[in-house]
């Protein structure tokens, strides 16, 4: 500490007093990165910063670019909408725009829930097909197959159209690994493939081979029992007949004993 002399006495200068208070709430944990953020980090993509507020010429005020009260350049805020050249002139363009916005909001919410499930290492359920503006032939066939199987009988009693062809390959053909994955897991999988290729002899499943051996023994035993001659059965029948005759000659059985007076 710095020292000074005051009236012939050495005095040390003390630092300013500080009172450390405990934190009211715990330190917030860092949010898990989304799938796009992981991909952008891997590829080195840098997002351009967007202005939080934009000037709106109609209301002469600053409005947020996204989120609550973000009505800048919104089609629903217009009093008239242009009908496209290839669209039905009697179609409600306001209703169409409102429906498209509702679908976009639902799609964003679905993606947000998927990111949360992926960050929590939970299984992400499939949701069928997401709506698209220009669906392809494959997309329509998959949507038709899903609509047929959405009944209580899983499409067992759903009627087909007169010239409708059976849908083929409605499920996923192949499962691709994500672009951003566990490198150690991928490395172990590749080493496992190389070790299998390097082995000279084929791999043998001991459990399966044992079950097959026991099954063959049981089949041979059953075959031997079915081919055994029927002499033993005939001998047993003859012994039973003789025993029956002897009991008849003795008489009495469970009744009173008969003897000579």
Automatic annotation (TrEMBL):
Biased composition (Basic residues): 230-243
Residue ranges, compositional bias (Basic and acidic residues): 213-229
Job of this protein: Involved in ribosomal large subunit assembly.
Stated family: Belongs to the RRS1 family.
Location of the protein in the cell: Nucleus
Region ranges (Disordered): 151-187, 213-261
Protein name: Ribosome biogenesis regulatory protein
GO cellular component: nucleus
Name of a matching Pfam family: RRS1
The keyword Iron-sulfur is assigned to this record: no
InterPro entries registered for this protein in UniProt: Ribosom_reg (IPR007023)
Keywords in alphabetical order: Nucleus, Ribosome biogenesis
GO BP, sorted A to Z: ribosome biogenesis
